[in-house]
Protein: UPF0352 protein VIBC2010_18854
Amino acid sequence: MPITSKYSDTEVEKILAEVAAVLEKHAVGPELALMIAGNIATNVLNQDVAASQRAVIAEKFTQALISSIDE
Structure:
């Protein structure tokens, strides 16, 4: 069953394009881009998610990430 989002594709794509432009501006390679993405995820979890829910949300995020990659 596909996951539906409360955010529009247009909104997500616009923000993603802006983030990609910043990474391109700084000539960021894949390793650093992933490090930055991981740090952003960690910061969001630590700052915006209740401590009691962090591990659960992190696990769901991990599962979503794994299911979204092409193998």
Summary: Residues 1 and 67 are 12 Å apart (CA to CA). Residues 30-48 form the longest helix (19 residues). The two ends are 20 Å apart (CA to CA). Helices lie at 9-25, 30-48, 54-68.
